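Input.
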Amino acid sequence: MKRYAGVLLSVTSLPSKYGIGCFDQAAYDFVDWLEKAGQRYWQILPLGATAHFGSDNSPYQAYSAFAGNPYMISLEDLIREGVLTRAECDSVDFGADPAKADFDKLHENRLALLHKAYERSSISQNEDYRRFCGENSWWLDDYALFMALKRFFGDVSFRQWPQDIRMHWGFALDYYNRELYFDVEFHKYLQFKFDEQWARLKAYANDKHIEIVGDIPIYVSPDGADVWAHPELFQLDENNHPTAIAGCPPDTFAADGQVWGNPLYRWDYHRATGYEWWVSRMWYSFKLYDMVRIDHYRGFDEYFSIPTTDNTAKNGHWEKGPGMELFHTISWRLGNVKVIAEDLGLMTEGVRNLVKESGYPNMKVLQFAVDPKDIACANDYWPHNYNQNCVVYTGTHDNETVAGWYEGLNAEERGQLRRYMCDDFTPDAQMYRKLINLALHAVAKDCIIPMQDYLGLPNTARMNMPGTVGFNWRWRLIPGQITESLAREILEAVTAANRANWDALNAGKEQD
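Output.
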């Protein structure tokens, strides 16, 4: 069995110019760096068009299950096309801190630049653009109108729109498509440029034998084009308001549980349609990615349903999900697709059986292993309890950095970890390296390490702190932070663990 390694890094965290990571030269340089480091995978966060108001620009609360994030469009490419000038881009304020994305500045200023590019593009005469719009009309038409309407109505939730358009009535769609024609075309143009640039970058990575691991949330945003245009897919009332919402129950980490607010699926309707929407979603995802990590996989076994009027999850209850019927259908329609099942959190026999029957590799996170009360180290996250069909991580986007996590352990927790690793000598400041090495040498088929962990960064580089808003999803690399010497160090480590991507390394040597 071939064993591989990869790096977890959001596209938005690349050290691109102009305020946020995007599909510019920094992305291509990162692919080259992955090749030199012997990596097989680049795992990213969802590429969706994030909601600026009320969601902290979380990639897990996107305006559409299909649309891409316009912030990721390379302004450098648009400069080369001649639809923007370098002076225009250089004169814009994208924020003072190159290590943090300033989403307020991006929302205000980057979209204005993209609109200038659209106005100068003569896009309607572009045959590729017309073909893209025709092939993707099944989601693009509703999405583009939705975004135009969001702006027209002052960015309020679609549930505050006038009834005729809020309810997606046909005559209202015709009216607003005429009235907002150029705004609708602008959003179609953004999706065309996103698709064009992402396809080029993905092809570049694939040519170097590097695969893209994408990430799709199980749920969609409550204020998004999917819910607005297809209310029949969700548990909504006659006015298209949710009758129940998603979240998770109270536990030791959150006494009131978590209320996510996403509308829940009407699984009876999906079953009656042969899961057509989900099949389409997965098919589209495999156009974008080589492998897909499905977030909150346990929700397909059972999902937590919370009354819409509640502010806590205390009155929620579990309901049965579609189970293997959905994944049998996906396999039948799409073939043997490559999926990672994110099964973290509360484990039940139902979840274990769903993961086992699907055959998808599940996730193991080293940070979840440490528990001094677990004297025999019997929990699922200690490496000796893994099987081969899993993917091991030091942490995910929701975790502390591994250096920050270790620093926060108490003496008893550090002692358990050091006894497990038979290591009494490594300085605390270097333990992050040993934890990475522990993950690399685990029996798991694949190992993916967050970029922050390879750099040994503290919790100031953390990507997300679940249950909080206002400062998440902002962390970025700065130019020069990842180096040739780090690539060589990682290559040595993955080679020793029998995880080096020799296809990429040999191809690189031939090109040299």
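The mean pLDDT is 95.
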